[in-house]
Design brief:
Layout lengths: L2 E2 L12 E6 L2 H15 L5 E6 L10 H7 L6 E2 L7 H19 L3 E5 L3 H12 L4 E4 L11 H12 L2 E4 L2 H9 L7 E3 L3 H14 L3 H4 L8 E4 L3 H4 L2 H14 L5 E4 L2 H4 L7 H5 L2 E3 L4 H10 L2 E4 L2 H10 L3 E3 L7 H5 L3 E3 L4 H12 L16 H16 L8
Length: about 375
């Protein structure tokens, strides 16, 4: 059921309007610079839908406040569930909103179930879909995110790419031309914008940490955390690091729910925390000696922050971070993780990489491309230079 958070019926029949749909924390980080950019463009109104795929306050509501974006106009409240349940609920909810609001375009960031559900609902109603972070490919069809990415890209009218690799991936699939725009990484816009505020949170002091003297860990993918033996083996490796460097492990809700019977002695040697608010997490990320993750966004953020990262996966859809020299793909072997961690901790911090268009202005470029799309739907709207 759709739950409007504030009054305000559908926009006037000719007011150019876009609907931005997000449900997971990284989606809001990617959307915020675009919403700020659209706010600077006269004549383009943006309405926000929060699907509620992430429903912990630290994972969504507090982040909306920190990013300075509008309170969502709608909240679907879908919560947890299987992929089919989440995707179906998003499709139903977004369909109702699109029918009521009649937007000129629907913006969907990332690769979660909210992304593909909203894109399918919009496309089937004939509304142009804008996919933020298009063209990422891991080549791993066991990852639900890979399916979501490919399906969303296929049905999108405007594909916003954050690096040349993504443009090349789309071209290899026959998607090119005016549909594709290389705008840069909007997630890095948010990171750079909020880094001073993050550093002022006192997060390091709160956890008794020293700059460059701890390891930060994020693990949440089902292929790892849903298997007690695999997760337990990783915790043992991390616990072996703890005598020399504290290991901070903010627990994703999925991970936390599966830890009861997994290596309790090893877990006690780590600094395990509840999910952190975005600013606190960025503060810990920026000052870490090493980050261990299975997250896509963390690979990008550590590259922008010039922090060494070990990705505990067999593949990555973000090879640009490996080319930058900040990220290393270690596979899913705990012994390989232990070896890579020892090697990384023996090395100095990497040099700050220069990744094209990861410059803090991607949101403005994305907003301009979206405005051009909306102008095609509303010929009377001036195009942005």
């Amino acid at each position: 059921m759709v739950h409007p958070l504030r009054d305000g019926g559908p926009p006037s029949s000719r007011e150019p309007t876009v609907l931005a749909v997000a449900g997971a924390r990284p989606n809001f980080v990617k959307l915020a610079p675009i919403l700020h950019g659209l706010a600077e463009i006269s004549g383009v109104a943006a309405r926000v839908v929060h699907t509620g795929q992430h429903y912990d306050r630290a994972m969504s509501e507090s982040l909306i406040e920190q990013l300075g974006i509008p309170v969502p106009d709608y909240h679907l409240g879908i919560g947890s569930g299987s992929h089919a349940v989440q995707t179906g609920a998003v499709m139903v909810g977004v369909e109702r909103i699109v029918e009521a609001d009649r937007p000129d375009a629907v913006i969907v960031p990332g690769d979660v179930n909210s992304t593909v559900g909203a894109a399918l609902a919009a496309a089937k109603l004939g509304v142009p879909v804008v996919h933020v972070e298009s063209g990422l490919r891991s080549g791993d069809w066991t990852m639900p995110e890979e399916i979501n990415r490919v399906v969303t890209d296929r049905i999108s009218s405007l594909l916003l790419c954050h690096c040349q690799d993504a443009v090349d991936n789309l071209a290899a699939e026959g998607i090119e031309g005016e549909r594709v725009a290389l705008v840069g990484n909007t997630m890095i816009d948010s990171l750079l914008d909020l880094l001073p505020a993050a550093n002022a949170t006192g997060a390091l002091e709160r956890y008794g940490l020293e700059q460059g003297r701890y390891v930060l860990v994020t693990l949440h993918r089902p292929a790892l955390v849903d298997h007690p033996g695999r997760l337990g083996a990783v915790l043992e490796v991390l616990a072996d690091l703890a005598p020399s460097l504290p290991v901070v492990f903010p627990l994703h809700p999925r991970t936390k729910a599966r830890l009861d019977a997994v290596a309790p002695a090893a877990l006690r040697r780590l600094i395990a925390t509840d999910p952190l608010e975005y600013l606190e997490f960025v503060a810990l990320e920026a000052s870490a000696r090493l980050v261990v993750t299975d997250s896509g966004g963390v690979q990008e953020e550590t590259s922008a922050l010039a922090v060494r990262c070990l990705t505990y996966r067999n593949n990555t859809e973000r090879p640009v971070t490996i080319a930058a020299g900040t990220n290393r793909l270690v596979g899913v072997n705990p012994d390989a993780l232990a070896s890579a961690a020892a090697e990384s901790l023996a090395q100095p911090a990497p040099a700050a990489p220069r990744i094209p268009l990861w410059d803090g202005n991607a949101g403005q470029r994305a907003a301009a491309a979206i405005s051009d799309l909306v102008s095609a739907v509303n010929p009377g709207l001036p195009r942005v230079a």
